[in-house]
Amino acid sequence: MIKEYRTIEEVAGPLMLVRKVDGVKYDELGEIELPSGEVRRCRVLEVNGSSVLVQLFESSAGLNLANSRVRFSGHGIRLSVSKDMLGRVFSGMGEPIDGGARILPEATPDINGTPINPAARNYPSEFIQTGVSTIDGLNTLVRGQKLPIFSGSGLPHANLAAQIARQATVRAADGEESAPFAVVFAAIGITFEEADFFVSDFRKTGAIDRTVMFINLASDPAIERISTPRMALTAAEYLAFECGMHVLVIMTDITNYAEALREVSAARKEVPGRRGYPGYLYTDLATMYERAGRKVTSEGSITMIPILTMPEDDKTHPIPDLTGYITEGQIILSREMYRKNYMPPVDVLPSLSRLKDKGIGKGKTREDHSGTMNQLFSSYARGREAKELMVVLGEAALTPTDRLYAKFADEFEARYINQGFYENRTIEQTLDLGWELLHILPRSEMKRIKPAILDKYWPEEA
Predict the structure, then answer these.
(1) Residue ranges in the chain modelled with pLDDT below 70
(2) What is the C-alpha to C-alpha distance for residues 12 and 375, in angstroms, rounded to an integer?
(3) Is the pTM value of this prediction over 0.90?
(4) Nearest to residue 216, comparing CAs of 178, 245, 234, 190?
(5) Where are the beta strands (DSSP E) in 62-173?
(6) 78 near 109, Cβ under 8 Å?
(7) Tell me: the pLDDT tens digits for 344-382?
(8) Which end of the chain is more exposed for a tag (fewer CB within 10 A), N or C?
(9) What does the alpha-carbon distance between residue 416 and residue 419 come to, in Å, rounded to a whole number?
(10) Dist. CA 452–CA 462, nearest whole Å
């Protein structure tokens, strides 16, 4: 039997203290009924004996302490899941906002799922094609991996997120497209204009048909912002581990999530950690990130691309710093590339995918992938050094080989990095472009490619 309480003692901003309650648990969902009949939702943040501290999902304005009633549901926040979610747009709390009917649930799991047991994990080893050369060719995404994108304020990470969501696909060992594949897209604390861009872009390109979208606006309550990524992961877990699909989860922007977490922590008067963020920020992020992966008992997989903006472009800020510890690499966006109008503006040299070697090679991408990747990295790094020397000493001070490396760096940025947000390159096109650019250099400089591979793929006119 559900009990109702009229023992609201205090309201402070989004927090409310209720006394003399019985059997209420942490994270439990509750409802507050106002004298007018209006119902507002809340969640239990803290239990202390017979007193509970709850956080409101809506505003506390107009809340009458004496005449309002509180009741608790006996369970946490749940999401109604079904394969019918594909092609639909939901709010950050899982409510349909696309004008369609409610989902008829096949299950209603709690959104606070658990990370995958390490003993039950299957090692990521299959290639995911994003259609973006700087990712596919140099920082390959592997099925079951967590590969964040570190951006800066004003950089077009939203466009890159939409591009990956549109273009991403998994491939079988024979190089053909493998199905089924789905995308779960969570937009956290974005503006109305960004939300309109994502929804209209996905509908215009047809990507919406294989996508489940969760949209949380900047004007929505902070508590909803905390729930949105967990809603997305719960939907992904159902599609991956119950329906056997390969799911790519894209979240933007994790910085907004962490800011909401800090806001709630400050309202609870918790002792702040680094830069005011709660001391449990690492644990909280890990409980989300570690829900991605592959299970030995399931054909499906969850691959995650969290996107975050680094405050003041600082990689040592707590959010990117802790994210880097938990995940397997990072793609970093560059203001220098952005100023040159090279899109997407990926900074190749500091970017890294720690699992890239596991998802490339014969039967996965192509036998020449590893060698060309290493050679492109090496040649671009040397070309950048040559260009820096050119600025200091002048072009005449460079050797003929160094001038070729400087030319290679310019061509690499203009043609390999710069591809635009609507060009979808296959891995074969990316690898062929890499060989074409390496042809700028003498064959004698190809020191990171095996001779047998070099003989097979080096252009005949070389």
Answers:
(1) 1, 172-179, 459-462
(2) 60
(3) yes
(4) 190
(5) 69-72, 89-91, 121-122, 127-129, 141-142, 149-151, 169-171
(6) yes
(7) 999 999 999 999 999 999 989 999 999 999 999 999 999
(8) N
(9) 7
(10) 16
